[in-house]
Amino acid sequence: MTTTLFQIDLPITKIRKSKNMMQIISSKVNQKILKAIYGNVDINVTKLHLQLKMSQSNCSARLRKLSSLGILKTRREHKKVYYSINHTKLYTLLNSIDKLQSLI
């Protein structure tokens, strides 16, 4: 008995979420943001957008997206939100990418 692709129960929701995460993490701008944050203990959007010479709204939107994926941690201090790398999540993601590449 042979199994076809259509008989396999694929976790489509997980695949789509993984695809979205890979697209976000592969963005050159998001990589610049992650590198800039990595070099700081924590940083707010104002300091980051000035450092990277990008609009504050674009920077803020990208930070929200990275935070929603769990790649960044946030800390609120009055009206400012400070961002830092969630090392556990990022290392898990990078290890997963390594494992996936070994299958290719």
Key words describing this protein structure:
Arc Repressor Mutant, subunit A; three-stranded antiparallel β-sheet; alpha+beta; 5 helices; elongated; 104 residues
Unreliable parts: none
- The helix-and-strand class reads alpha+beta
Strand content: 5-15%
**Could you say what the CATH topology is called?**
Arc Repressor Mutant, subunit A
CATH superfamily: Winged helix-like DNA-binding domain superfamily/Winged helix DNA-binding domain
Task: Specify the biggest β-sheet.
Answer: 3 strands, antiparallel
Secondary structure: helix percent:
55-70%
What is the overall number of helices?
5
Shape: elongated
At the first level of CATH, the class is Mainly Alpha
- CATH architecture descriptor name: Orthogonal Bundle
Q: What's the SSE pattern?
A: HHEHHEEH
Cross-sheet strand order for the largest sheet: 1-3-2
Distance between the termini: 27 Å
Count of folded domains: 1
Number of strands: 3
The overall pLDDT average reads: 86
Q: Rg from C-alpha positions?
A: 17 Å
